[in-house]
């Protein structure tokens, strides 16, 4: 999913939350440390004493020839992320994480509390600032900074969409939408940098965990990005769909690239472009792909293979659709091997300004 703080949901910059100040990389370090310990135990049990790290060649699945080489820093073993493994986090580690969280939150909480108290004594408490660089916007008005209104009239539009990244005005018409859960469960995020709209909702049947089954009045403006998690399928519908502003064109990349577990850089290991991230093996159930853009934004993707059926309809999910990789983007593949298949929903992309715009 697009980068949000795992503590407060704020926007991340270089993996640090701009709202509470928490360095979210502590989670990544903890998971990697746990992973290394599990692999050490497995290696000793199997009588192995060394783990190889070397250089691999990225192969073209279409032609069977090599399409470039990249330093592969993976260990060659599948990462087993399980609930049982996560429960092994020691009490000391939990204490350290809590301490870091509190250290990052205390300045913001103190300043926020002081400003709220001033508002109470002034008879004003509708808005306040948590810091000099961050202005709090009430969740009741996510469209406080929109620059224009979407026309009330338009055409009817309805479709099912699953895991992927969808550009408004290209893949989905601009309009005011109703989003309904159709199958599975997972997150749905709308990023609109021009209008400063950042909405996230967890769709599912478990209300006690904050999941919802529908959401109305979701305004999707041209240029915004709608990201849907793996494991969930939603139905979106509107009665005021506007004409598309970009056309789907032929993808200049035509070869499928294989990425094993490890680290890669777009523009070096493979050509920049738009790809679908697909699992190579259905047995790889814990695939995890981290995409860090040159713009300092980070997305997290979980490619899955699923088939959903409901009310006589069928939706087949094979990985994450339409992921854009500008040159210089860093990709971390964990838990197995993925295929980067050229997306059939390609459009002319401003790679220098992605994902802030299109």
What does this structure look like?
The protein is built from three helices and 24 strands. The chain has 358 residues and is α+β, with helices and mostly antiparallel strands. The protein folds into three domains: 98 residues, no CATH class; 132 residues, no CATH class; 87 residues, Sandwich (Jelly Rolls). The chain has a four-stranded antiparallel beta sheet, with no helix packed on it. Strands 8-13-10-11 form a four-stranded antiparallel beta sheet, with no helix packed on it. Strand 5 and strand 6 form a beta hairpin.
Helix content: 10-25%
Shape: globular
Query: Which value, in Å, is the CA radius of gyration?
Result: 22 Å
Residue-averaged pLDDT, rounded?
77
In DSSP terms (H or I, runs of 4 or more residues), the helix count works out at 3
Major β-sheet strand ordering:
7-14-9-12
Q: Determine the N-to-C terminus distance.
A: 19 Å
* Helix/strand order: EEHEEHHEEEEEEEEEEEEEEEEEEEE
Unreliable spans? 39-92, 119-138
**Strands, total number:** 24
How is the biggest beta sheet arranged?
4 strands, antiparallel
Broad structural category: alpha+beta
Descriptive tags:
about 350 residues, alpha+beta, Jelly Rolls, 3 domains, four-stranded antiparallel sheet, 3 helices, 24 strands, about 35% strand
């Amino acid at each position: 999913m697009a980068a949000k703080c795992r503590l407060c949901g704020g926007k991340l910059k270089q993996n640090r939350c701009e709202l509470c100040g928490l360095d979210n990389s502590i989670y990544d370090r903890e998971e990697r440390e746990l992973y290394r310990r599990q692999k050490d135990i497995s290696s000793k049990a199997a009588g192995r004493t060394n783990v190889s790290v070397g250089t691999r060649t990225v192969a073209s699945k279409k032609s069977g020839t090599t399409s470039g080489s990249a330093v592969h820093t993976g260990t060659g073993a599948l990462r087993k992320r399980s609930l049982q493994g996560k429960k092994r986090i020691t009490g000391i580690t939990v204490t350290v994480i809590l301490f870091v969280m509190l250290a990052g939150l205390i300045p913001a909480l103190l300043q926020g509390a002081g400003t709220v108290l001033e508002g109470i004594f002034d008879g004003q408490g509708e808005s306040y600032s948590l810091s000099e660089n961050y202005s709090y916007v009430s969740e009741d008005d996510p469209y406080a900074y929109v620059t224009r209104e979407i026309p009330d009239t338009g055409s009817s539009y309805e479709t099912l969409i699953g895991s992927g990244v969808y550009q408004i005005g290209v893949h989905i018409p601009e309009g005011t939408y109703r989003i309904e859960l159709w199958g599975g469960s997972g997150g749905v995020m709308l990023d609109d940098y021009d209008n400063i709209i950042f909405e996230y909702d967890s769709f599912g049947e478990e209300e006690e965990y904050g999941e919802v089954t529908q959401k109305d009045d979701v305004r999707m403006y041209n240029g915004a990005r709608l990201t849907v998690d793996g494991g969930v399928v939603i139905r979106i519908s509107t009665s005021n769909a506007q004409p598309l502003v970009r056309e789907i064109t032929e993808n200049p990349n035509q070869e499928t690239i294989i990425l094993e577990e490890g680290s890669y850089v777009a523009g070096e290991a493979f050509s920049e472009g738009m790809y679908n991230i697909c699992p190579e093996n259905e047995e790889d159930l814990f695939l995890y792909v981290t995409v860090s853009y040159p713009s300092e934004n980070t997305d997290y993707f979980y490619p899955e293979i699923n088939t959903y059926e409901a009310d006589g309809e069928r939706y087949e999910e094979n990985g994450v659709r339409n992921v854009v990789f500008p040159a210089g983007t860093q990709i971390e593949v964990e838990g197995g091997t993925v295929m980067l298949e050229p997306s059939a929903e390609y459009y002319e992309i401003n790679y220098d300004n992605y994902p802030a715009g299109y």
